[in-house]
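G., before I forget:
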Amino acid sequence: MSLLQSTQFRPDPTTPTTRRALIRAWPEFQNPVAWLVALILVIMPLIANGFFLIEIFATTLILGIIALSLMFLAGYGGMVSLMQLTIAGFAGYMVAVFGVSGNANISLGWPWWLATPMALALATLFGTLGGALAVRTEGIYTIMITLAIGAAFYYFTNQNWAIFNGHTGINTVATPHFWGVDWRADIAFYYVTLGVAAICYFAVQYVSRAPFGLALQGVRDNSRRMAALGFNPNAHRIAAYAFAAFIAALGGVLQVWNYRQISPGSVSVGACIDVLIIAVVGGITRPIGPFIGALIFVLLRTFALDVLIKFGLDGNRFRLLIGLGFLAIVFWSSDGVIGLWERWRRRSASSTQRSDGGRHG
Amino acid sequence: MDSVAQRLSVVGAGAALELRGVTRLFGALAALTDVTITVRPGERRAVLGSNGAGKTTLFNCITGDFPPSSGTIRFFGEDITQFPPYERIRRGLRRTYQISALFPGLTVQDNVYLACRGVSRSRFSLLRPGQNDALMHATETLVQAVHLAGVKDQRVAELAHGQQRQLEIALALAGAPRFILFDEPAAGLSPTERRELIEILTSLPAHIGYIIIEHDMDVALRVVESVTMMHNGRIFKEGLPREIESDPEVQQLYLGGGHE
């Protein structure tokens, strides 16, 4: 029952067993901050206008989902994959190719409910094959192989006109309409992304403590010992790539629906690295990290320009800010923003304890 | 020896483990040279030898951590020379490591649970175990068997050395082991812990054979019925514990002559 509650906290021994099990399984259920964040996210359309809803929050959630797939691989599997955005982009291209778009000579015109599962399946296959290549290596070489896959895909989309329509990409991609709802309308689309993000978040959380996720962490910590326990470490790694690819593909489908177009620029090497930055800035030890990282990234990308101009600087330097922030976080906290937050909370907790002790003394 | 003969009759004839001409090279260095060993099912044997005699390399060849450079290894009649480690483990082979190879970030229970999972089906299960999960029960039993029930929810990194050694043994007992390789299980244990270790080893079911590498003669010779002496990567001598103990060559080589 106590399968991998190891990571964070020890429940109060007086709570009844069933409740304790529930808390172990879903630690965020006990955290008032998590409930507050969930509430705010749900009522967001009442607070925020269309711009914030889509450009900030939906975009954050989508990038968060893609970075979450990297967090799963890096945090639980110890594998840093730079191709997660490429997988997402591949899924986006497949939605455009199989579905309906402005480029009728390329798109096959399938309805969205056929095109989307097809895109998810093909992108998962793509990610699994890439993973099967990458697991033959470790550490820096995994990064190199996945980066090579990302770069190759970028140049391929640039040069292939038959399927990917070269550097112009595919435009006016159709988005789902059914039950009389335009699911790309601001509020509906926000809830779609929120729903998918929540499912992905809880799926990663759940799987991390299921036998598969536990074994993956075992492979990360000591793959030789795992083999001596009867596990095939590489098979586990490849399965992790498949799982992560599916999550990244979901993000990619949402992304192409969000922008209604996809072009090589969406799968550039720079964008691949952005996903790594998002995951590392947020923190790769918990599924919440990538979403925090994505929010910081999107806020900076959107507003840094205005702020910089206000200070009389070139607005295009927002990447400099992101770079400096990245540097600072990696320098001060190996575990991203959530690492900083946890340290701050621990320190304030211990200082309260000290002052309590002083009073009693 | 009557009890031994009795015990061995339970498990039948044939070889549990059969090494023929096993050689392992590390570059130009031969860590093992032409090692031939046959161990019957249920037999318990000690491998002795000074540091660098090739004892741990022998284990690594048997489990496939480092495959042999030449020679064949048979496990209950099956040629496993080319098998990856996990295939050997799934056939009932187990090992412990000289330096504890555990998962320090996980709890004691999770470590044992992983070991039980590894030799079961559905290693890829995405479902968390429920209240009545058979493997969870197996885990509980195993944790109790190695006297770690009191610390089962602690992270392994927080355990004392002796407890880690006991956990190391628990991982090797998961599932249905048929043959176990113990690599210096008593290293760094206190006298009390050594007694517990001897008790665990001697109370293993009769059909489970093992090879134990152990420097502590008091432990090694009390839990085995045969001894193999290794020297410079070769088999130096084989025999009963008392023969080896009283062998002048062995005393010269291994016990430094100062042992009584």
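The first strand of chain B starts at residue 17 and ends at 26. Chain B has two domains: 1-92+176-260, 102-175.

More on Monday.
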